[in-house]
Amino acid sequence: LTHTDHNGALVSHPMATQEVEFDGDVLFIAERDSQKVKDIAAQSPAKVNVSYSSSGTWVSVSGTAEIVDDNAKLRELWNGFTGAWLEGGPENPNNIIIKVHADSAEYWDSPGAKVVQLANFVKAKVTGNRVEGDTEVVDL
Questions:
Q1: Is residue 113 pLDDT above 60, yes or no?
Q2: What is the CA radius of gyration of the chain?
Q3: What is the DSSP string of 85-109?
Q4: What is the spatial distance between Cα 72 and Cα 94, in angstroms, rounded to a whole number?
Q5: Which long-range contacts (CB under 8 A, 24 or more apart) does 113-122 make?
Q6: 28-64 as b/e, with b when 16 or more CB fall inside 10 Å?
């Protein structure tokens, strides 16, 4: 999750996605007293970016974030993984939800398995030609 801090600088934090709703919202659980929550709350709605990567595939989601104080939703989302990182469970008033409303998403998918990707990279370096992959922007 990338946002701007109180000085306007970009700041990124590793976060665990709790839920991706059908309407394009992405939810995270965070601590109310954390700097990221303070920065987002001060700019609400704050412009943010969420990025994911895995084995040659990347997704970048741009949108706005808000801080949501919803105990019922927090209890619904809470799991053992969340409990390993945050204290006190969903009943802890310091635990809140960061809700990202996606405006657009872009993905890139490099062709083939890791060996094929490496071969394409070497080929591009030798020939000077660009590696081609799939990419698309989706407005939400």
A1: no
A2: 18
A3: HSSSGGG-TTEEEEEEEEEEEEEEE
A4: 15
A5: 113/56, 114/55, 114/56, 117/56
A6: bbbbeeeebbebbeebeebebebeeeeeeeeebbbbb
- Buried b vs exposed e over 87-111: b needs ≥16 C-beta within 10 Å? eeebeeeebbbbbbbbeebebeebe
Whether the CB-CB separation of 46 and 4 falls below 8 Å is answered with yes
Model pTM? 0.79
Look up tokens 């700019």; give the residue. 43
Question: Residues for the chain: how many in total?
Answer: 140
Judge contact between 2 and 51, C-beta under 8 A.
yes
pLDDT in tens, 1-42: 999 999 999 999 999 988 776 677 999 999 999 999 999 999
Q: Which amino acid is at 74?
A: L
Gap between the Cα atoms of 129 and 115, Å rounded: 18
